[in-house]
Amino acid sequence: MELQQKLHVLADAAKYDASCASSGSRRARAENGLGNTDGVGICHSYTPDGRCVSLLKLLLTNYCIYDCSYCVNRISSDTRRARFTPEEVVFLTIEFYKRNYIEGLFLSSGVIQSPDYTMEQLVQVAKLLRTEQRFGGYIHLKAVPGASEELMLEAGAWADRLSANVELARDSDLAQLAPAKTHKEIERSMQQIAHGILDAKDKTTRSGKSPRFAPAGQSTQFIVGATSTPDSELLDKSANLYKTYKLRRAYYSAFSPIPHADPGLPLMKIPLVREHRLYQADWLMRFYGFSANELTTEQDRNLPLDKDPKLAWALRNREFFPVDVNKAGQAALLRVPGFGVRNVKRILKVRRYRALTIADLAKLRVAVKRAQFFIVAADHNPAAKQIDTPKLPEKFAPKDGQMALLKQQKRPERVSCDKRRGGRFHHLARDGATVTRPRHTPG
Question: What pTM was estimated for this model as a whole?
Fold first, then answer.
């Protein structure tokens, strides 16, 4: 099979993995080297918010010895197969980078022969890029559960981020749909990566430098909606992984039906709004001080689709409000709908010098229309009197057709390369191996 055909097959096969954001790594370009990664993205290209970057997203191969029912690349699937050599992936990465199509590499793979053999191939790609090509850009490698600790440690020495996907939150679901995988084995790989990160921090040289080991940390991914697992269990599992293995990020990917799938899997696409709500809830756990059990109820263990998780919590806990913006602490302010982390920092800073009014909050870019029902300020705020009225939830009801639009929206699978740039690989980027833009969801 020609390289272009492989590229088309394996770039398309990689689209199901969402865990490819690249924030958190810093890697300077070596002398006479190529590319660099800065602290807010990869290489030298990032948007004003500092988080969105372009990655060449590939599978090393879509051959796989496992038969996971939810995976299009399972051994029993009749999908078209292809396989890169490590040298071919290195060549493509450098050529795409030189043409400014991408700023880094996200590389995953089906499991071939054994977890150790597959991990060796992935590590070889990163090693060749770093040593022979002196590539200083971002590299994200998929950690293959079951591979040896030595290979995990070598992978962390060359890659910026590693990720071992949990995929399903329940042990019983994993046993039914992916019998070759276990949470114990997946979390063992996570533990090895976490130990490698801690060891690197401890081994500081006399010059004050620590050896590099996955400087952007590790991440994981959950498949949403493939089973009956409610959102509460997904969030509980995420919270436990964040605490135990110090994950940088958990990703949530709404299940999409695949050809010749297991009859027990859903036949319809899961609404992307559910995925969106999980990202919002995840953000609240990471940056706003919420716990997983606060975001759902015993009566409904899924997040509401018609309102964001913070607003839903506020409407269920109205006794907590109104919050005085001139007296409340940071933890209380972070629970106000319409207040973001930056908003709260500005409020705490400015109120040291003056009492804040509703107009002042608008100047600080607070979403006053949403927050006004939950706060009191230095001036009169009649909206705060509505906090106990039965009709308050109606003020936040989505507009007609808005929810239908969210449920029908399609996730873009690829972004075309800059057409102003030509070259040998322009048509390849257009046909298959396009850049992937990570989706970042505010809390």
Answer: 0.83
